[in-house]
Write a structure and sequence with these properties.
This protein is α/β, with parallel strands linked by helices. It has helices at residues 2-26, 40-56, 71-76, 81-86, 106-119, 170-179, 215-227, 230-238, 240-258, 277-281, 309-312, 317-326, and strands at residues 29-36, 65-69, 89-93, 123-129, 133-135, 150-154, 189-190, 197-198, 202-209, 264-266, 273-274, 295-297.
Length: 334
Amino acid sequence: MQSLVSLWISVLASCALLPCMASAEGRRQPIIFATFAEDAGSLSNVLLMAESIRTFGGRYKDAPIRAYMPADLAEQEAETAGRFKDLDVEVRTSEAPEDAAWFHYSAKVFAAAKAEAEAKGAAEILAWLDEDTVMLEEPDEFILPEGKSLGYRPVMHKNIGLLWAEPPDAFWGRAFELLSVPESSLFPMVTPADGDTLKPYFNAGCMIVRPERGLMAGWVDCWTTLYRDSLMTEMCRGDVKYRIFIHQVALAGAILTHLGTDEMLELSSRVNYPIFFEQMFGARRVFDDITGVVTFRHESYFRKPAPDWDKKLKGPADRVAWIKKHLAPKPDAE
């Protein structure tokens, strides 16, 4: 009798554990970080991003990191496999259609859509970040509030964008026509570098999304519509800036036709901080203070930085030291 009671208690205990086990197996990650490396030169940036997340990511320092790249790059760069493994970065491949190759950043658009598709069901949030991103603090802003599907930053400066007060030019007008962007969806957006007020023009290097909303898939759809349009292609042939940044126009179209403004959240200036941007591209504002910065973008600055950059950079001494150790060129490399 005692053995039967013991058996029954054991069965009950096992049954009680089943829901917990099922819940654990089906639980989604709070966040997945993902990026794209187009060539061998950008792989070191991916590794640096991963190291910064693992060092300064706080509660999210152990979150999955996925690095997308063309299959041939993944094969050629086998020597970096050890570093990716050490940082627990998963390498995944992504390809773009051949007819899109003439346009800059095309492969990144398709990689973003693949990252989104592969994050569905696996994470609440996908943080799609350009590979020159460095994390300095826990990214609590990336955990979007309920009801928000996109966390974004505006473009750094006007570039090919439109001032809020001016009508769409031929390029944007054609894009909005092809993508059926309603005028009612437009809202003002202020650039961090110059304080210009633009029509919606989103930074494609920092997008925090809920994968199930399918925004990145919409980006591919809008991008394909634009780059396959003969008139858009002709305008890109006439102005290289259009050819370089048409993917951002497609992104604006995707966001404005897929999400309501109530689903969007402009992230704070602590995110996607453009370190020393004024030295590289010119700006009304100076970007030399990383105090409180969550993520910054370095683009090509540290390939040949100003000799006294570390004296001018304000912020926590340990963060400045980390940047100096990992980003600044070594004397013997000069």
